[in-house]
Every structure is written in C-alpha cells, then in structure tokens.
Write a structure and sequence with these properties.
Elements (H helix, E strand, L loop, with lengths): L19 H4 L2 H14 L3 H6 L3 H5 L1 H18 L2
Helix pairs in contact: 2-5
C-alpha cells in the first residue's frame, strides 16, 4: 500500500495580484473563467486587482487558493 498526502496552501497565503502570471496563459485563463462560472465568484478580478483586505475574506480566499493551486499544478505537467 502506498501512502498519499495532498498538500494545499492555507488561508493566509493569498496575496494581491496572485493570479497575474497564471492568467497570462490562455488555457489557465479559460480555466479561471470556468471556475468563476461554477462557483459564482469573479475570480479574475479577485486574482488580479482585489486588495489584501478583500482577499482575506474566506469566501474569496478559498476559491482563489484552489484555482491557483490547480493552475500552478497544470503548469508543472
């Protein structure tokens, strides 16, 4: 049996502009749009122009962290 662990960045690791580089990639930009539509949150705005205070809100931080984790993982494949 193989042990598996999944590690994700936690609340507090978000920062303003955290999606700028990821959203420059057309595929990851399209993924952002899909995620935004699915969760009903404007991730593109949150990932590019939202301030620190707005990003600290759990309802904003969590979808942003999930997207950036998944998108960064896609970049490494």
């Amino acid at each position: 049996m193989v042990d598996v662990a999944f590690l994700f960045p936690g609340q507090g690791s978000q920062q303003p502009g955290m999606g700028n580089e990821l959203l420059a990639d057309p595929e990851l930009s399209a993924l952002c749009d899909e995620c935004s539509a699915f969760c009903g949150v404007d991730l593109r705005r949150l990932l590019t122009v939202a301030g620190d205070e707005e990003l600290r809100l759990t309802q904003n931080a969590q979808p942003c962290l999930l997207y950036t984790s998944d998108a960064a993982d896609d970049l490494t494949r």
